[in-house]
Design goal:
By secondary structure, this protein is α+β, with helices and mostly antiparallel strands. The protein has 3 domains: 4-116, Acyl-CoA dehydrogenase/oxidase, N-terminal domain (Butyryl-Coa Dehydrogenase, subunit A, domain 1); 119-227, Butyryl-CoA Dehydrogenase, subunit A, domain 2 (Beta Barrel); 228-364, Butyryl-CoA Dehydrogenase, subunit A, domain 3, CATH 1.20.140. 50% of the residues lie in helices and 12% in strands. The strands form 2 sheets. It has a 4-stranded mixed beta sheet with strand order 1-4-5-8. The longest helix has 28 residues, at 296-323. The radius of gyration is 20 Å and the shape is globular. Bound molecules: flavin-adenine dinucleotide. The site of flavin-adenine dinucleotide has 28 residues, from α4, β1, β3, α11 and α12.
Length: 365
């Protein structure tokens, strides 16, 4: 059983390791996040979890991000999967109940065994839109096969299983949605993980490109049209928003320790604290209301929250960095890393441009 209060200590240790060497994949930190129970925390205690709801998970990701945004980003993907598996049971269609329960138990067992599930959905040029997905899944006599190009799969070769979106024909899967989520073991034949990650921030996340060529998937997540029926994406969006917010709270703490002598700087930092608290309250209220199949109004609220919190937190990081002075002006210093890492929040699904377009469409309708 992991308490939210214990996440701070994990975050401090993650930051110490990152401070010593910020480039390599943080294998020791990821192992500790598994061993401590953080990655599986959304599962119920009976399944080895800590019964966290979406608000708990969002708070934990924010705390982790305030010290190590890369660790928080890597953790957000499997924590989101655990949260959705643990929380979606009430909306499973009767016909899919037996399959869902079996799969949920098997995923929980994998998480207890330390199997690393990562997200491998994004595609270059898709603009973050699911509808623009080019990867195709086809049903063969020996199971599902995926073919197509993916980018930015955080965890890269360190992951054991990728969760990947792909288009499916109605013939192969009656009732399929725009895309379905598939589980693909990373060592399956036909999976190639590139070594092309060279991000502006989030340097140690190894967010690599992946190519599937007739790659063998172990199956779909849930049931046909899972994304539209259970609406799992809003859970992930709350976690994603917590990452740039954590960058801002981390930068604020860095600049407030020790407290600056300048009254003008203290005023700016007090102002930044109010902004962080306001963003955190907005995100907490949204994350606290998460439930599966919450409907379009809640989806729109999550989109607004993710868009506002990510963009305002990123702007705040830039303001704070501008005030941070020469002491922090080091390319690989903690302040510079928090600044660069914060920009990932506006790129994470849905990326800012797509979010703004969707907000405008929703405003007009
Ligand atoms: C550090 C980091 C880690 C990530 N980790 C993961 C991960 O683990 N798994 C994963 O699946 N993804 C991951 N992503 C990807 C992320 O979630 C987004 O899907 C991705 O960044 C979207 O950008 P793109 O390059 O596909 O956008 P592009 O297709 O290159 O588009 C560029 C910009 O134009 C906009 N745009 C393009 N077309 C349109 C359109 N038709 N309408 C409106 N706007 C449009 C986009 O919104 C975007 O802002 C990660 C991203 C980053 C930065």
């Amino acid at each position: 059983m992991l308490l939210i209060q214990e996440v701070g200590e994990l975050a401090v240790r993650a930051a110490e390791r990152e401070g010593a060497d910020s480039e390599p994949y943080p294998a020791a930190t990821v192992r500790e996040l598994f061993d401590s129970g953080l990655i599986r925390a959304p599962f119920p205690e009976l399944e080895g979890g800590s019964g966290w709801n979406c608000l708990d998970a969002t708070n934990a990701i924010e705390i982790l991000a305030s010290r190590s945004p890369s660790a928080a980003l890597i953790a957000a993907m499997p924590v989101g999967i655990a949260g959705v598996v643990a929380g979606s049971s009430p909306v499973v269609p009767a016909a899919s109940r037996a399959g869902w329960d079996k799969q949920a138990a098997s995923i929980a067992a994998d998480f207890r065994d330390g199997k690393h599930y990562a997200a491998c959905n994004s595609e270059a040029g898709a603009g973050g839109s699911l509808a623009a997905t080019k990867t195709i899944a086809s049903k063969t006599s020996s199971g599902w096969r995926l073919t197509g190009p993916k980018i930015l799969a955080s965890g890269g070769t360190h992951a054991d299983v990728f969760l990947s979106t792909a288009k499916v024909s109605q013939e192969d899967m009656p009732g399929a949605g725009i895309v379905e989520f598939f589980f693909v073991p990373t060592d399956a034949p036909g999976v190639t993980v590139a070594s092309d990650w060279d991000g502006f921030g989030m340097r140690s996340t190894e967010s690599q490109s992946v190519y599937y060529e007739d790659a063998r998937a172990s199956g779909i997540w849930g049931f046909p049209d899972f994304i539209a029926i259970a609406q799992p994406l809003s859970y992930f969006f709350c976690l994603f928003a917590a990452i740039p917010l954590g960058c801002a709270t981390g930068l604020l703490e860095l600049m407030s320790t020790p407290a600056p002598a300048s009254p003008a700087l203290r005023l700016r930092l007090a102002d930044a604290r109010m902004k962080c608290e306001a963003l955190s309250a907005y995100l907490s209220e949204t994350a606290g209301a998460w439930r599966p199949a919450a409907g379009p109004e809640y989806a729109a609220r999550v989109l607004r929250t993710k868009t506002y919190v990510s963009s305002e937190a990123t702007k705040l990081c830039a303001e704070l960095f501008a005030l941070s002075g020469g002491r922090h002006y080091r390319r690989d210093g903690a302040a510079a890393r928090l600044l660069a890492d914060s920009f990932a929040g506006t790129a994470l699904r849905p990326p800012l441009a797509l979010s703004l377009d969707t907000l405008v469409e929703q405003f007009e309708s």
